[in-house]
Amino acid sequence: MSSPEPVVRSRQTERDVNGVSTQVVCTEFSNYIFVVLTQYGKIGTLISVTPDSKSNDISTPTLSTKVLLGKEEPLTHVCAKNLAMFVSQEAGNRPVLLGLALKDSSIDSIKQMKEIIKSCQVW
């Protein structure tokens, strides 16, 4: 007798990014993909990243970001779009709820964090 598939699938991992311990938790819900990326051990700023349905070109979708909780800063939106675009695309253009608490948001760090998220996929 096999056990039923869990209602919510989740994976987590921890790696160093430029010498900073970084934790990632990816959770798939029916209507959202929830990704927490933290270097502080907290959820941090919560951002909703949604594909823009008005975009005519499916190959290069545009994303809308909205800070739900936390600091409203331009860099937050840039990081969120960079980190969540491939998640949304690979999950069938589903919206992404992203928790960010980063000490280091350099371009190199963001690239490494994308790879960590890819290794933690649940979608």
TrEMBL record:
GO terms for cellular component: proteasome complex. Coiled coil: none annotated. It comes from the Eukaryota. InterPro entries: Proteasome_assmbl_chp_3. GO terms for biological process: proteasome assembly. It holds the Pfam family PAC3. PANTHER family: PROTEASOME ASSEMBLY CHAPERONE 3. This is Proteasome assembly chaperone 3. It comes from Solea senegalensis. The lineage of its organism: Eukaryota, Metazoa, Chordata, Craniata, Vertebrata.
